[in-house]
Amino acid sequence: MAEIIGVSTWIVAALRWGDWRNWNKYHATILYFILGDVLYYYVSYQHRLWTLEPTWPLKNELICLVGEFIVFACTVLIYIGKYPRDHFISFWWTALWVIIYTINEWILLKTGTFTYHHGWTLFDSFLFNILMFILIRLHFKMPVITLILSVTISIILIFLNSIPIK
Predict the structure, then answer these.
(1) Block means of pLDDT (10 residues each) for the chain, length 166 residues?
(2) pTM for this one?
(3) Residue closest to 165 by CA, chosen among 118, 69, 155
């Protein structure tokens, strides 16, 4: 039930604040965000650091992943669509989104919809969220550089978290 409420909330937020008129400008960044999630699930299949746990009535991981993809698209439509031009304000805009995602994850933890494994913590997710939102913005501005950085950062994270590659 938490997934349905959460995804519905993100859809309503995106309908209210998302930049739908320019959605095609954000298309590549939405796909980048989704691809990162898919690759995480693929690479860490045997050694996940965090897991979305399907709960009633959505007891299917694939359905939950579709919900994640909807949330990611909504996130980009709002986060990039309303991104401030002023550097000082943009810092606080990104900080706000890091806090939103971290609180959202904390709620999912408390409802049993999200679990951590292999030493991963909410603080790790907080740090990851900082990196993630910086990369989302960077991808929108400089996609090729962001892809190169993302591969490098992914390799470092795989090494630091002892994720076996088979």
Answers:
(1) 84 96 97 94 91 74 80 97 96 98 94 92 98 98 98 96 88
(2) 0.92
(3) 155
